[in-house]
Amino acid sequence: MFLNRDVISIIDFNPQELERLFDEADLMLRALEEGKHLKALEGYVMATAFFEPSTRTKMSFQTAMIRLGGSYIDLPPEEASSRAKGENLADTVRMLDSYADVIVIRHRVEGAARFAAEVATHPVINGGDGTRDHPTQAMIDLYTVRRLHGMINGLVYGVIGDLRYGRAARSFILGLSLFKPKKIYLISPPQLSCKREVIDFLNAKGVKYEEVYSLSEVVSELDVLYVTRIQRERFPDPLEFEKVKGSYKVSFDSLKNSKEKLSVLHPLPRVDELAYDLDNTAHARYFEQAKLGVPVRMALLKLVLKG
Ligand code: NCD
Predict the structure, then answer these.
(1) Fold match between 10-133+293-306 and 135-290?
(2) Are the C-beta atoms of 238 and 277 separated by less than 8 Å?
(3) Would the CB of 168 count as within 6 Å of ligand 1?
(4) How much distance in Å is there from the Cα of 158 to the middle of ligand 1?
């Protein structure tokens, strides 16, 4: 099911496979909570090659590998590696492929992970490619929903923010549409609305969705609210960013009509779209979500490397 598989986009997986991954993540989480020292990946090496900034994705992959008894090597930043001498991506990937058993890559160019997977003989995991895919983030997000609500199907979701340039939001929406959500509200200013191909995918899957501009219209219906930052660095034109910056902010006040059990998720990092006054409320689940990155990535590494 997972053995030797590349992990490039969330839509390469079906719900049965994802549930299998989540069952494995449950076992990993239990082992972590019990303080067990696992050895499932003893002797295995993972290479992390991050060509874009990262805190959670890279470090939780590295933690996951160590927690399973494996080790990792990390590509140095540009100025300290041979990229500064003009080495191309294919050659860099070939080298990592010859040192490690699995490669986790993040790159600003869409399609870079798929390209790396074609070059490498070992499995390649996409840690984010430009505005396109972030499959392991979507796995964590869906797993978090399953843990908090006991299911993914049948819930009402709101996804607010930069649905146009945000790969985490995009991957979450695509991931949800593999399941049977009751409804997805796509909440954004018009300039940041979902790309056509995502809407086409939702239609093809027969998912019920609605595009709206403001959270207040729909907040009372939601079970899960997924918040994302505006992806400033992805805007083709900085003036366009100026027009939308600060256009939404989720705060304690904006949730006053929400269900008591509403969970607020965020892939992090946050900038100004998620108020700090939410952090100490029962709605705030984003730090827990980030923490679940470790067991989910442990489960994925184990399944990809050992089946
Ligand atoms: C996201 C990313 O890099 O796409 N971060 C993450 O991996 N948790 C979200 C973002 O940068 O906004």
Answers:
(1) yes
(2) no
(3) yes
(4) 18
Q: For domain 10-133+293-306, which architecture applies?
A: 3-Layer(aba) Sandwich (3.40)
Is the previous residue joined to 189 through a cis bond, with omega within 30 degrees of 0?
Answer: no
DSSP-assigned beta bridge partners for residue 125: 7, 104
Q: Which residue minimizes the CA distance to atom 8 of ligand 1?
A: 267
* pLDDT tens sequence across 191-212: 999 999 999 999 999 999 999 9
Report the alpha-carbon distance of residue 260 to residue 151 in Å, rounded.
Answer: 17
Cα 126 to middle of ligand 1, angstroms: 12
Question: In this structure, are residues 224 and 157 in contact, taking their beta carbons and an 8 Å threshold?
Answer: yes
Model confidence at 284, in pLDDT bands (50, 70, 90)? very high
Q: Is residue 228 within 8 Å of residue 267, measured between CB atoms?
A: yes
pLDDT digits (tens, 9 = 90+) for 80-100: 888 888 889 999 999 999 999
Q: Please state the CATH superfamily assignment of the domain spanning residues 135-290 in this structure.
A: Aspartate/ornithine carbamoyltransferase (3.40.50.1370)
- Amino acid at position 190, single letter: P
57 lines ligand 1 (CB under 6 A): yes
- pLDDT per position as a tens digit, 110-128: 999 999 999 999 999 999 9
In the chain, where the domains are located: 10-133+293-306, 135-290
Q: Is 297 near ligand 1, meaning CB less than 6 Å away? A: no
